[in-house]
């Protein structure tokens, strides 16, 4: 039995800092994420009770400390599925201290956020609709901005993340055609329940929310589920991080399989790198963990 597994058996899930990795889809997102975990030295730990629930457990010793991680695909797109499956995940995984929602998203700025780039959320904007009206043959939806009390990180944590990104992923000049180069951006992510394939809709979002860099469909449900669990467990330190790889442009949707895989792998590399940075000695206290 290797060192990570032996220590795991002695201490159990709750003994140390633990991490969760969630994706929406299996083939396009979870498989690349778990491949990155293996490539970076995480060891799978076969637990039938978790495997039966679609959850994989991983171990790695970082700076002499056992770190446990769990990974799972939500299985469907959308905020409702994301919230339900996040709650289910947390109920089976002893409430990980840090959770990463990773996978793919559509760029809202085709001239600067290119395919294969990665966006890490500084904060998240979640919009839904709470009223439908109109009598002229065209329905009108009244927008509603959901307030996520912890959709962003503290100023101190934000500085740590920004410095980590700058050091690990220095910005390089590139264009849409530069397939071997990708950049990491730190900014706002827009989340709602729709797949966009419209220049008109993108232009409207650009005008209304010029800080939003990309659009996806699960972060709102994911973050609201974490908020609810924190409340139910007395405010246990636990935070969610959104890391998305750009697989297409929301104004002209396409489904290039190779691009989707590369974008998801890039996002997973960034998410795993952030998680390991949080685990190193002298760093945990900054994230509200002991």
Tell me about this structure.
With 290 residues, this protein is an alpha/beta fold. Helix content is 35%, strand content 28%. The chain contains 8 helices and 10 strands. Strands 5-9-8-6-10 form a 5-stranded mixed beta barrel, surrounded by 4 helices. A hairpin with a 6-residue loop joins β6 and β7. α4 packs parallel to α7 (219-232). 44% of the residues are buried. The model is unreliable at 1-15 (pLDDT under 50).
Compact description:
With 290 residues, the chain is an alpha/beta fold. The protein has eight helices and ten strands.
CATH architecture: 3-Layer(aba) Sandwich
- Poorly predicted runs of 5 or more residues: 1-15
Percentage of residues in strands? 25-35%
Reported for the largest beta sheet, the result is: 5 strands, mixed, barrel
Intertermini distance: 28 Å
Query: What is the general shape?
Result: globular
Question: In terms of topology, how is this protein built?
Answer:
Elements: H1 3-11, E1 18-23, H2 26-39, E2 43-45, H3 48-51, E3 56-62, E4 65-73, H4 79-92, E5 98-107, E6 118-133, E7 140-146, H5 155-168, E8 184-191, H6 199-208, E9 212-216, H7 219-232, E10 239-249, H8 257-279
Parallel strand pairs: 1-4, 1-5, 5-10, 6-8, 8-9
Antiparallel strand pairs: 2-3, 3-4, 5-9, 6-7, 6-10
Helix pairs in contact: 2-8, 4-7
Question: What distinguishing features does this structure have?
Answer:
290 residues, disordered N terminus, 28% strand, Rossmann fold, single chain, alpha/beta, 35% helix
